[in-house]
Amino acid sequence: MNPTPITEVAVAVLTQPDGRVLLAQRPPGKVYAGYWEFPGGKVEPGEALEAALARELHEELGIVVSRVCRWITRVFEYPHATVRLNFFRVFEWQGEPHPHEGQVFSWQLPDAVEVAPLLPANFPILKALSLPPLLGISHAESLGVDSFLARLDIALHNGLRLIQLRDKTLPDEARLPLARETVRRARPHGARVLVNGSVELARAAGADGVHLDSAAAARLTRRPDCAEPDSFLVGVSCHDDAELAHAAAIGADFALLSPVLPTLTHPGAATLGWDRFAELAAASPIPVYGLGGLGRDDVALAQSHGAHGVALLRGAWT
Asked: In which domain, by residue range, is 226 found?
């Protein structure tokens, strides 16, 4: 039996500084006419993905892209075709997007889309785009709880919107109050908190999700059960392609991939380097944060190598 052919598609996530992304409505006469999607199109035989993206955006929107970052890759089976969607983040372009092929466009916030219906393949993409580019990993064990909470307030005030409460060596009787207090302080800022460990601990803390280390994820064959799967987040720590593939297979929403560069805590340890990181991130169907040897100022650098953003341990609280 011949395998189903896969159609390669280059897809653009044009992103405004305020986080809005561009969606286009498919014109009459096309499959799924009237549905909304991200702009893009089929890759021609022998054509590089980035070249296909630039061509499609010039033909469809009349723009010339100037800052394009590889993001994620997802395969989706429609009744009429199987497509491999190669997503790019487009942060800068020349010209004002306007329809060249009869489409209707709309700038939308990923977590508050007001147009419908959406192509089914785009629901996980919008959830992924609601993740901020900076993730802070708690460091209360070393800083002390009071010092950490004081630094947490400063970080929240300065825009941190995603927190992984790690501190695995603290006993549960100490971690639960810390998690609850972290959630309490994060809520007024619209920040989300994931607890490293069990769903039960996350629920007890009122957190927004769980984060699993690679060993905990390896023991699972499906996504952890949660009361509100649409809003609940699951993150996984990964170190190679097999762990990234497993994280995606169990339905994780994102992964941390480390170590990218040498770190103070693990001097001399093997690192991925940017080339290998970019290769793994581009093949992943879920967003990947770079971790290890990175700082706040490395977000754009990380994104240029396929990262969704950067995860910081000490750097999030200084």
From this structure: 134-317
Paired tokens of 219: 């023991």
Residues 161 and 266 placed together within one structural domain of the fold: yes
Measured CA to CA, the distance from residue 185 to residue 153 in angstroms comes to: 7
Q: pTM surpassing 0.90? A: yes
- Indicate whether 88 pLDDT > 60: yes
Burial class (CB in 10 A: 0-12, 13-18, 19+), 264: exposed
Are 163 and 257 in a shared domain? yes
For 186-199, letters b (16+ CB in 10 Å) and e give: beeeebbbbbbbeb
Task: Look at the block and give the residue holding tokens 């630039």.
Answer: 54
Q: What is residue 81's three-state secondary structure? A: coil
What is the token pair recorded at 308? 């969704």
Alpha-carbon distance 141 to 169, whole Å?
8
- 8 A C-beta contact, residue 91 and residue 69: yes
In contact, 81 and 7? CB cutoff 8 Å: yes
